[in-house]
Amino acid sequence: MAMGRIPGGDDDEGEGVFAEINITPLTDIFLVLLIIFMVTSTVIVQQGPGGGAKAGLKVNLPKGGVTDVTARTTDLSVAVLADGSFVLGGDVVSAEELRAAFDKAKVDNPDTLVIVQADEGVPHGTVVQVMELAKKAGLAQLAIGVRDGE
To answer: Strand pairing partners for 76?
Structure first.
């Protein structure tokens, strides 16, 4: 906004109009945009391909030996959180929705590998429940996700 004297006014002594530029609103806009960019870029980085624990969920996997399973794009990664809830593709699902996803995966590709990534504190029975749902759907290739034992 321009501030100053209006030419032809009462106290016009031959001085011209002067203007001041206020940088504060422009700086505020840039700071808000910077914050939005930082938040969205963090979310995008955390949502990697494969879902499950790679989608920003904290799953404390137990230590294991050498990892010999590499996830393919057609594989299903199921995360079992410490509270016993199931996560498939970054979304919390019920046991029925998980069964439906296994049935769909069997139709799409019978050789689908199911990788169960269970938190270290999850009871053994919950992991077995996920594996049984996969077996009932006809998916025989199962793997348990672990972190490196180093």
So the answer is: 114
**What pLDDT shows up at residue 146?**
72
What is the spatial distance between Cα 54 and Cα 67, in angstroms, rounded to a whole number? 16
22 in the same domain as 83 = no
> By C-alpha distance, which of 143, 84, 147, 83 is closest to 115?
143
Number of separate domains in the chain: 2
Angle (deg, nearest 10), helices 124-136 and 95-108: 40
3-state secondary structure of 106: helix
Distances in whole angstroms, Cα of residue 52 to Cα of each of 16, 49, 55: 67, 9, 6
pLDDT, average across residues 47-59: 51
127 vs 131: CA distance, rounded Å? 6
Model confidence pLDDT, tens digit, residues 92-109: 888 899 899 888 988 888
Is the pLDDT confidence value at 127 over 90?
Answer: no
Phi, psi of 143 (to 5 degrees): -145, 150
Report pLDDT for 32: 95
* Domain limits for position 101: 52-148
> In the block, which residue shows the tokens 């990534």?
117
